[in-house]
Design a protein that fits this description.
- The protein is mainly α.
- The protein contains eleven helices and no strands.
- It is globular and about 60 Å long.
- The two termini are about 25 Å apart.
- The relative contact order is 0.14.
Length: about 260
């Protein structure tokens, strides 16, 4: 019996085990109404409230309005930030606190499976949130299609990696689930406020306005805006996100605890 168990652990979980783990994570999120609805509904509320105040006049010679240049990029960044900074760290920290990861460590199902499954499910939730925002934007506010759809997808993937990386730092260092949620809320609101989530960044003091463009939320929304409108992508939009991904990966690898 021991030999069979050892052989199973050596062989590792198969595709069916991975599918079951991802399905289990998906069910866990669907049972958490706050974690499911807030990243979907909150960006839509911001979209509706901000779109009503956005000018319909084209900006410069781009043909795009303030809705595509400012509102929509911030809303898409909100979806990615909420899931990455709040949802994922809270789930992972609760699994560690309740001993789920420790118990998985003595089974063929490695704790790494939970991490991968959580990332997959979080990405799917982000995709649903982005899809809802885009449907609302095109159906109700006559949004102009992006100049380069693939470029926008690439920008969203980079922003997603950045937000998830920061979320992994929270999951690595937060001692309890409540602390992970508290830190995630502070990061989401703080980065969002500096990134224009509650109003134009030009309303901020000059120092904060300049800094906001180098922080993940501001750089992310700027990158999505540039790719959507076909404007040149500046180094200041990409480098902060890449640096955040690399730094967060290093910190997470160094400090993440399974128990």
């Amino acid at each position: 019996m021991t030999a069979v168990r050892t052989q199973a652990i050596a062989r590792g979980p198969g595709s069916r085990a991975w599918a079951m783990m991802i399905l289990a994570e998906g069910r866990a999120i669907t049972r958490d109404y706050a974690g499911l609805l807030l990243p979907l509904v909150l960006p839509l509320l911001v979209l509706v409230s901000s779109a009503s105040m956005a000018s319909s006049e084209p900006i410069g010679d781009t043909g795009f309005t303030a809705f595509e240049v400012y509102v929509l990029p911030i809303v898409l960044t909100m979806v990615l930030a909420y899931v990455g900074l709040l949802n994922m760290p809270s789930y992972l920290s609760s699994y560690r606190k309740t001993g789920v990861l420790r118990r998985l460590g003595v089974t063929p199902a490695s704790p790494l499976m939970v991490l991968v499954a959580q990332i997959v499910v979080s990405a799917l939730l982000s995709l649903v949130g982005i899809a809802l925002a885009l449907v609302a934007a095109f159906v109700f506010f006559d949004a102009i299609a992006p100049a380069g759809a693939l470029a926008v997808v690439g920008a969203c993937l980079l922003v997603m990696a950045c937000m998830y990386g920061i979320g992994m730092i929270v999951a690595s260092l937060a001692p309890t689930t409540n602390s992970a949620i508290a830190v995630g809320i502070l990061l989401f609101l703080g980065l969002g406020a500096l990134g224009g989530m509650f109003g134009g960044r030009d309303l901020l003091p000059d120092v904060l306005a300049d800094l906001s463009g180098y922080l993940p939320f501001g750089a992310g929304s700027d990158l999505i805006a540039a790719t959507w409108t076909g404007q040149p992508v500046e180094v200041s939009m990409v480098v902060p996100l890449i640096v955040a991904v690399i730094v967060s990966a290093g910190i997470s690898l160094a400090f993440f605890r399974w128990e």
